Amino acid sequence: MWWMMGETGGHYCNKKTDDICGDVCGQESNKVLSMSRIRCILRGWDVKTLIFLFAFVPTCIFFIYLHGQKISYFLRPLWESPPKPFHVLPHYYHENVSMENLCKLHGWKIREYPRRVFDAVLFSNEKEILELRWKELYPYVTQFVILESNSTFTGLPKPLFFSSYRDDFKFVEPRLTYGTIGGRFKKGENPFIEEAYQRVALDVLLKKAGIEDDDLLIMSDVDEIPSRHTINLLRWCDDIPPVLHLQLKNYIYSFEFHVDDSSWRASVHRYQSGKTRYAHYRQTDDLLADAGWHCSFCFRRISEFIFKMKAYSHYDRVRFSHYLNPQRVQKVICKGADLFDMLPEEYTFKDIIGKMGPVPRSFSAVHLPSYLLENADKYKFLLPGNCKRESG
């Protein structure tokens, strides 16, 4: 087969070519063969294309990893429409106007005697806000109902905080119905399932507290505080809606950072046996304007911020461990920025862009809960100009 051999004794390649790929013919070493194949693959690719592949593409992937949630929230208006607007009821109040006239202004009649009021909450660790809430509502609440679990919504074990400092709430003891419930501690479960489980347990505790038909039931989180004059109005007026959501002024970290007036999940119900169920979602289209305050993440201590970030239903927002760094948390609080580095949860580009960035400071402490102002030294951290928190 000598005619198949080249002059050097190597194999003859009958494919006549002078290009790069042609170098793969012959008895080359594996290293040379591999390099030739790479050169063949990359043939025709210019420098810009290589830079795009090996620099720009990985950078984009890393950017999406860091800011994918922001991108998703910003593009939300493309695939999700705003919810149906509420029917907003004007809210009339002045301390010098009689209750009869206030009921009349709302289109209602005054009752011969006021309804009983039950205030029911799930408790985690919001001691100071709970005290503000109960001091605000104390004159008009018949029974304070509080349920506490040894589990967070995310399935983490927690102490029974309220039980440990129950003595600080002796002023409500004669009107207090306190219950506990054991957590299920199911790892990996959607936190909203545990939350719903605990809210259902509140229905049982309310019956134990003695609630009856046509009593008023306040359904809201601890930090969603109805104003006392709102509750007094609803307990004295007849023909109020069977279910009424409350529009609350929305604050974050303290009453220094006023986000907006769009908090609506708090609600008041005229209780109906077998029908009323404790819930924290939209249950009617009726919304009473300017009915109180929602102070989210309004804690005295940095450790309490971190506990809630890990404990509440939106724990998935803690995408990186450094979000829980105490120094970072303190910096975010004083800046009025978002603890989870998220964009606003809005449904139009106009609203999203309008709310981007830190929440502007407010220097107004007008129309806040009276007990807060009467005890300003004790609750200094909730007032404008006092963003520094205790560490413990």
Automatic annotation (TrEMBL):
BP-aspect Gene Ontology terms: N-acetylglucosamine metabolic process
Alphabetized InterPro entries for the sequence: Glyco_trans_17 (IPR006813)
UniProt key word Membrane: yes
TM ranges: 45-66
GO MF annotation: an example: beta-1,4-mannosylglycoprotein 4-beta-N-acetylglucosaminyltransferase activity
GO cellular component annotations of the record: membrane
Keywords: Membrane, Transmembrane, Transmembrane helix
PANTHER family for the chain: BETA-1,4-MANNOSYL-GLYCOPROTEIN 4-BETA-N-ACETYLGLUCOSAMINYLTRANSFERASE (PTHR12224:SF0), BETA-1,4-MANNOSYL-GLYCOPROTEIN BETA-1,4-N-ACETYLGLUCOSAMINYL-TRANSFERASE (PTHR12224)
Name of the protein: Beta-1,4-mannosyl-glycoprotein 4-beta-N-acetylglucosaminyltransferase
Organism encoding this protein: Quercus lobata (Valley oak)
Top-level taxonomy: Eukaryota, Viridiplantae, Streptophyta, Embryophyta, Tracheophyta
Gene of this entry: LOC115982446
